[in-house]
Amino acid sequence: MRAARHRNDRLLGIAEHSMAILLVAVFLGPIVLIVLTAFMTSGQTLTSDLWPHEWRLSNFREVFVEAPFLTWLKNSLIYSVLATGFMLLSSFPAAYALARLQWRGRNLVLLAVITMMLLPPQVTVVPVYRMWAELGLTGTLWPLILPNLVGDAFSVFLLRQFLLTIPQEYSDAARVDGASELQIMLKVIVPMAKPAIAATAMFMFFFTWNDYFGPLLYTSDEPSHWTVAVGLASFRALHHVQWNLVMAATVLVMLPVIVLFFFAQKAFVEGVTLTGVKG
């Protein structure tokens, strides 16, 4: 009877969480299929078999032989790290000014930030491309990295929403002790805003790592400056019948993002959860 009761409780738990189990299967199903295909032989990928007959680790080595994958990884890492760093240096002070300081026109600036969030980048792509072409920076990743020095609208808004949740009393106490506004921001607010900073940084890193449109626009004629997104698309076009190699390359592209999220998921979830509590 105890075993039957335990089995019934398990079946009841499965029934109660059936929708969640279904959603997990829908999201993880393609990823599992990609990983399994990455270990198959080239011939098996053209069949209906889903489980590898022979686990071929050599597929990952062949990816580096068939394409300059290390160069693509290096370019993506440079793009993502510099863009994320520049974004934090510029966006956090802007968010601090919008959330913690009182000055005339603050609401209008916030409205402009929200408007920039809603503006599709394709609308301004022609004049912006012409500007970078006149500066001689097309063919490189700098047109995608340097704009982050003037802030990112989504990051500014996300950070502002979190900073609004920090009580003003902390800043007032620091001012009474003689701290300047810069000292308050760096020594009081920044340590308390680490979850939001981590979440914003990860959003930017994920976006730049997966960005295809920007690198394709500015580096399509310079293969030495391709990122993994552009390189993977080219690799798939050249090896469209060798799906095992294409899936192995896809796994290599996904792996850094998965590892980063695994180590930083606590700060990421905390930052996303706490952001937007106060408007």
Could you give a short description of this structure?
By secondary structure, the protein is mainly α. It is built from 14 helices and no strands. The longest helix is centred in the first third of the chain and has 32 residues, at 69-100.
List the helices and strands and how they pair.
Layout: H1 2-16, H2 18-38, H3 58-66, H4 69-100, H5 106-118, H6 125-134, H7 142-145, H8 153-163, H9 168-176, H10 181-192, H11 194-210, H12 213-219, H13 228-238, H14 243-274
Helix pairs in contact: 2-14, 3-14, 4-8, 4-11, 4-13, 5-8, 8-11, 9-10, 11-14, 13-14
What does this structure look like?
The protein is mostly helical and 279 residues long. It has 2 domains: 2-59, no CATH class; 60-274, MetI-like (MetI-like fold, Orthogonal Bundle), CATH 1.10.3720.10. Helix content is 73%, strand content 0%. It contains 14 helices and no strands. It has helices spanning 2-16, 18-38, 58-66, 69-100, 106-118, 125-134, 142-145, 153-163, 168-176, 181-192, 194-210, 213-219, 228-238, 243-274. The protein starts with a helix and ends in a 5-residue tail after the last helix. The model has no long low-confidence stretch (mean pLDDT 86).
Keywords summarizing the entry:
279 residues; MetI-like fold; 73% helix
CATH superfamily of the largest domain: MetI-like
Estimate nothing, just give the exact number of structural domains. 2
Q: What percent strand?
A: under 5%
Radius of gyration: 24 Å
